[in-house]
């Protein structure tokens, strides 16, 4: 259930299922029934208004209205447009509804304890305007509970963007698999609770569609975790070089602690000799080396991974260092200043990426590097990954991770506690630590985001960046125990 399907892929799944012998009207009956079941599971009987649009989303509404009324609920139904204009399965189910069909208007909101929003689903084709926009405003201004069918009307299922205006739901019931817009902002916030329900589309059909996007979950990457072997030694777990700046030393200290907690065998902070004592005094298990010995450090192939950027400083020397590191084609994580240093010349950075590289920009850093790439977050991450050859991770509440081969994952964890200085440094450190242990770059980026998110929800209010690395053993133990089952 972790695959995320675009609206076109969803239409494809519907079509393949219908071709496989389940008629469209049965799929629609199943869809309506799952929403009905969710409603009666959540709420006791109350007055309901079902708001139906002119397409199949509206068709689902006729099924829901009928089932609720058969159950003894008081139901009103409003339709946008003429009933004669309904087509196919929606027309079929409209005929099964023997209650009154009102004109869709804000009058339906008055006195309704529960509103079922079936105005638009996957077929939303342009901005909502005029009378329908007024209706959306009335729904959002009301005190009624709102259940949206498939997506909150007005939310674009592919991007999570608002098309003119959108319903704010308390519960959204979608079918078969989620769409990107259920997890990308602002769509995610408008969905309320999300229920993904089976309507008879098989896993086989979903796999035939070859999804390339998933909700970030251990299912995706747990087979790629490099747990230490019984007979292993520290060099089997990688030796990460973390490049430390001279002013913001805290950033690389966070990187180092996070990487070490992720399981890396050895970690050396490489910095200007003048600040080595600061790094050396931080943690006894962290090693330090002067940047003046860089050539020798890089000639030692056991130094198999690099992380540079947090607190490193923006400028020419950072650019040269990054290019020198990328030339070696070893596992590399670039964050913060390592990215901003290429704002004037991003193509040089893209050209230099050849080995396993993860870049972890927040929105501001992303825009500086890829000013010409627009669209929703998923599309932008994918375009940047394709262009650069790096795994691109755009941070935020709806972090997206995209690999150059087109795979992508969206994090759907509610952990606003992570929005605190230094938390991104920790993320870079975790990912670099996992890559140093030999994990594939996309898997490492996804696992890093997941560990980070779980730390955010586990620790919760009061979280500071320093807490995250020390919480990792608790979560890693869970993953490790699960891997032994
Ligand atoms: N077997 C199946 O397929 C199943 C499908 N299922 C359900 O079907 C839903 C998809 O149905 P759908 O394709 O009919 O799209 P839907 O969202 O109802 O709207 C299309 C209509 O809206 C109109 N319209 C669009 N934008 C507009 C705007 N801004 N302002 C005004 N009008 C606008 C558009 O008009 P047009 O652009 O053609 O002029 C068209 O008439 C899906 O979300 C799920 O709930 C389930 O039952 C499971 C089985
Ligand atoms: N509202 C939010 N919900 C969940 N995670 C968030 C939220 N805001 C920020 N984050 C996460 O916090 C981290 C902040 O990183 P960043 O912006 O690089 O800060 P810093 O450079 O101070 O470490 C990122 O991993 C980001 O995804
Ligand atoms: K809807």
TrEMBL record:
(6S)-NADPHX binds at residues 56-60, 121-127, 150, 251, 311, 362, 425. AMP binds at residues 395-399, 424. Binds 1 potassium ion per subunit. InterPro entries: Carbohydrate_kinase_pred_CS, CARKD, Nnr, Ribokinase-like, YjeF_N_dom, YjeF_N_dom_sf. Transmembrane segments: none annotated. Its EC number is 4.2.1.136, 5.1.99.6. It catalyses: (6S)-NADPHX + ADP = AMP + phosphate + NADPH + H(+); (6R)-NADPHX = (6S)-NADPHX; (6R)-NADHX = (6S)-NADHX; (6S)-NADHX + ADP = AMP + phosphate + NADH + H(+). PROSITE patterns: YJEF_C_2 (PS01050), YJEF_C_3 (PS51383), YJEF_N (PS51385). In the C-terminal section; belongs to the NnrD/CARKD family. In the N-terminal section; belongs to the NnrE/AIBP family. Homotetramer. Catalyzes the dehydration of the S-form of NAD(P)HX at the expense of ADP, which is converted to AMP. Together with NAD(P)HX epimerase, which catalyzes the epimerization of the S- and R-forms, the enzyme allows the repair of both epimers of NAD(P)HX, a damaged form of NAD(P)H that is a result of enzymatic or heat-dependent hydration. This is Bifunctional NAD(P)H-hydrate repair enzyme. It comes from Thalassospira lohafexi.
């Amino acid at each position: 259930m972790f695959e995320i399907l675009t609206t076109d892929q969803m239409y494809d799944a519907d079509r393949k299922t219908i071709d496989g012998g389940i008629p469209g009207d049965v799929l629609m009956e199943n869809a309506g029934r799952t929403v009905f079941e969710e409603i009666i599971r959540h709420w006791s009987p109350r007055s309901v208004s079902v708001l139906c649009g002119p397409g199949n989303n509206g068709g689902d509404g006729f099924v829901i209205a009928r089932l609720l009324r058969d159950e003894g609920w008081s139901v009103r139904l409003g339709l946008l447009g003429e009933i004669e204009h309904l087509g196919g399965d929606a027309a079929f189910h409209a005929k099964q509804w023997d209650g009154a069909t009102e004109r869709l208007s804000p009058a339906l909101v008055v006195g309704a304890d529960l509103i079922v929003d079936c105005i638009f689903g996957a077929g939303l084709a342009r901005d909502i305007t005029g009378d329908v926009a007024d209706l959306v405003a009335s729904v959002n201004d009301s005190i009624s509970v709102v259940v949206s069918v498939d997506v909150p009307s007005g939310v674009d299922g592919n991007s999570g963007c608002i098309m003119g205006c959108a319903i704010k739901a308390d519960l959204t019931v979608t079918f078969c698999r989620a769409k990107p817009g259920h997890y990308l902002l602002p769509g995610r916030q408008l969905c309320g609770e999300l229920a993904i329900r089976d309507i008879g589309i098989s896993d086989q059909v979903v796999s035939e569609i070859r999804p390339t996007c998933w909700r970030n979950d251990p299912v995706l990457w747990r087979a790629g975790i490099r747990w230490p072997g019984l007979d292993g030694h520290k060099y089997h777990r990688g030796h990460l070089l973390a490049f430390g700046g001279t002013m913001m030393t805290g950033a690389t200290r966070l990187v180092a602690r996070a990487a070490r907690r992720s399981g890396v065998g050895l970690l050396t902070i490489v910095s200007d000799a003048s600040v080595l004592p600061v790094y050396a005094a931080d943690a006894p298990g962290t090693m330090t080396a002067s940047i003046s010995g860089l050539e020798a450090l890089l000639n030692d192939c056991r130094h198999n991974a690099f992380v540079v950027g947090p607190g490193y400083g923006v400028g020419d020397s950072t650019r040269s260092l990054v290019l020198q590191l990328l030339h070696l084609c070893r596992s590399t994580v670039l964050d913060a200043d390592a990215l901003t240093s290429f704002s004037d010349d991003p193509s040089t950075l893209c050209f230099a990426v050849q080995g396993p590289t993860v870049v972890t920009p927040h929105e501001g850093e992303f825009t500086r590097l890829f000013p010409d790439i627009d669209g929703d977050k998923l599309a932008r991450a994918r375009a940047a990954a394709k262009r650069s050859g790096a795994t691109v991770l755009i941070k935020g509440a709806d972090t997206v991770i995209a690999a150059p081969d087109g795979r992508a994952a969206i994090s759907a964890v509610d952990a606003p506690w992570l929005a605190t200085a230094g938390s991104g440094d920790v993320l870079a450190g975790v990912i670099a630590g996992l890559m140093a242990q030999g994990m594939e770059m996309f898997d490492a980026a996804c696992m890093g985001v997941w560990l980070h998110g779980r730390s955010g929800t586990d620790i919760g209010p009061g979280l500071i960046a320093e807490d995250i690395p020390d919480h990792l053993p608790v979560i890693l133990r869970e993953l490790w125990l699960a891997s032994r089952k």
